[in-house]
Every structure is written in structure tokens, then in C-alpha cells.
Design goal:
Length: 175
Amino acid sequence: MSDIDDLLDDIEANLRKKSNLKQAEKKKNVAHSDDLINDLDVFDLKLDNQQRLPKNKNPLVSSSTTTNNEQKLKCFPIYLSGTSTEQNKEEHTCNNLRCIQCDFDVLRFNDSEWTSNVDYLFFRNHMPDKKALKQRLRTKQGCTAYACQCQWININSLTNITAQYKELKWSCMKH
């Protein structure tokens, strides 16, 4: 009987070793995947910064071409503004944003600001229902309230959110 017990113990020990090796390999692969993703993010930023713009185009907007030779423009850096911003600067603000964290469009409410009692759960529960969202807005001339399902902000003047609000994961979806 002891020979069988010894054999079973050996098999069990070998299975544990293999299981531990597989777990260690998975952790290594996950870490390697995270490094690759970070490298791609840095590479994408470098490409965005190095793109050449066509002549007579807004210097705040980068461009790309679709398969139909139809020109699509992508804002970088991203600027937002309140409604009191001068008209000639208004054309530089992006109005086609999407959050890459929650995958929702960013909604814009002119001449409004979010009340102090808004929180993450409010937006999770009410996005993208504009009627429900307006319950937590108050009128403020010249201000614009922006929100997706996970983040929100009030903007009064022309603001580079790429530089000043790095926690916002909003991306231009091209125009």
C-alpha cells in the first residue's frame, strides 16, 4: 500500500509544480502585455505629434484620410470652452468627444454647470438620458458642462484639457 501512496504523492507534487509554473508564466505574460500596451500608447502619442497637417488647415487639428478619400480631422490637443469664448476661438473646440474609459459619448450642456452634488453613481445611472442629467444642472451664463458616464467637468474659457486635465480620458472621434 505504501508504494501506491508514494506514487500518488509524487504525482500530486508534480501537478502542483506544473500548476505553480503555469501561474508564474501567466503573471509574466500579463506583465509583458502591460509593457507592450504602454509602449504602444507612447508610440501612438509620438505619431499624433509628428503627423503633418495639410496646408490651410487649423494647426490645432490633425488629419487622416479615409478609404473614400474623404478627409477626417482629429483634434489634438483637445480644447474645450465655455459659451462666452470669443467666436473665432470657438471653432477650435472639439464637439465630437468619446470617453475611452467608459466608451460613452461626451455630452455638452451650454450655459450650464454641474451642481456640487453630482457624483460617479449619478452619471452611471443617468447617462445618456439628457432629461435626467439636466436635473443636476444649474444655469450659469458663459459656462459649459461636459460629461460622459464616468467623468464630468465645467468649463468657462478656452481650455486645453489634454494638458490641464490629464485624468480625463476623452478622445476626439474625428470630424
